[in-house]
Amino acid sequence: QVQLVESGGGLVQPGGSLKLSCAASGSIFSIAGMAWYRQAPGKQRELVAQTYGGITNYADSVKGRFTISRDNAKNTVNLQMNGLKPEDTAVYYCNANIRPRGFEAFTNYWGQGTQVTVSS
């Protein structure tokens, strides 16, 4: 009943920008942290950016270009992507460490993914 839904993906030219959004919904007690991962065809899924307890971390490949932000009131996380490169092409997945209402344990939840394609 807990769901993550991403939006904002699309096709952009190199150097362009996109803003991804992810909204968590359902029976949520609390969210410890949220993150963005990506997976290109034939490659492993990798952590792009995460935010936990006000601390943000980025993959070296996106530092200075991507910014993760979280709206706690709306249970959303965004990823502003600037200066996009062809190598950024991937399916981007939202991840959140969520404690469902009625449960004591936190569980990682994943969104369905949104495609980002950077090509001229």
Describe, in plain words, how this protein is organized in 3D:
The protein is mainly beta. It is built from no helices and eleven strands. It has strands spanning 3-7, 10-12, 18-25, 28-39, 46-52, 55-58, 66-71, 76-81, 90-100, 107-110, 114-118. The strands form two sheets. Strands 2, 4, 5, 6, 9, 10 and 11 form a seven-stranded mixed β-sheet that branches. A four-stranded antiparallel β-sheet has the order 1-3-8-7, with no helix packed on it. A hairpin with a 6-residue loop joins strand 4 and strand 5. The radius of gyration is 14 Å and the shape is elongated.
The secondary-structure class comes to mainly beta
The total beta strand count reads: 11
| Net shape | elongated
Please trace the helix and strand order, writing H or E for each element: EEEEEEEEEEE
Q: What kind of oligomer do you see?
A: single chain
**Could you tell me how far the N terminus lies from the C terminus, measured between alpha carbons in angstroms?**
40 Å
DSSP summary: helix tally: 0
Provide keyphrases for this structure:
mainly beta, single chain, 59% strand
Brief characterization of the structure:
With 120 residues, the chain is an all-beta fold.
What's the arrangement of secondary structure elements?
Elements: E1 3-7, E2 10-12, E3 18-25, E4 28-39, E5 46-52, E6 55-58, E7 66-71, E8 76-81, E9 90-100, E10 107-110, E11 114-118
Parallel strand pairs: 2-11
Antiparallel strand pairs: 1-3, 3-8, 4-5, 4-9, 5-6, 7-8, 9-10, 9-11
